[in-house]
Amino acid sequence: MNFETILSAVSAQAANVAPFGAKLKFVLGDHVILIDGTGDSNIVSQLDEEAACTISTDTDTFMQLKNGDLNPMMAVMTGKVKIKGDMGLAMKLQSLIQ
After folding, report:
1. Sign of the CA dihedral with 76 first, then 8, 34, and 89 last
2. Sign of CA dihedral 76, 80, 82, 86
3. In the prediction, which pLDDT does 89 show?
4. CB 6 within 8 A of CB 63
5. Would you kindly state where each structural domain of the chain is located, as residue ranges?
6. Is the pLDDT of residue 20 over 70?
7. Residue 98, number of CB atoms within 10 A of its CB
8. Where are the beta strands (DSSP E) in 1-98?
9. Do residues 14 and 24 touch, judged by C-beta distance below 8 A?
10. 47 FRET partner, CA 20 to 30 A, in 4, 8, 36, 67?
11. Which of 3, 8, 1, 24 is nearest to 94 (CA)?
12. pTM over 0.70
């Protein structure tokens, strides 16, 4: 799956969940997905701004997480996913990548 497909899927899912009161950033290789949940709705963009939580991985690992083929905790423990910032916010991610 390419980045544009992932961006589209995250955008669609973000529109269906309540704003979480913070900015969350995914860094997938050279690409960025910023979810701004500070307003009345989640706004998804490709802006590389400061965020309360930044999750870094590659597109393959992201898709494995999204498809349920990889346990998120195991991905973090093995270094496939790196989390910087608010861990509580990172825990809310399941609703965004399902």
Report:
1. negative
2. negative
3. 87
4. yes
5. 3-97
6. yes
7. 13
8. 23-28, 31-36, 43-45, 53-57, 82-85
9. no
10. 67
11. 24
12. yes
Pairing, β 31-36 against β 43-45: antiparallel
Residue with tokens 């544009």: 4
- pLDDT per position as a tens digit, 60-94: 999 999 889 999 889 999 999 999 999 888 887 76
The rounded distance, in Å, linking the Cα atoms of 21 and 51 is 11
According to CATH, the topology of domain 3-97 is Nonspecific Lipid-transfer Protein; Chain A (3.30.1050)
Closest CA to 25 of 6, 2, 53: 53
- Can you tell me the distance from the alpha carbon of 19 to that of 1, in angstroms, rounded to the nearest whole number? 26
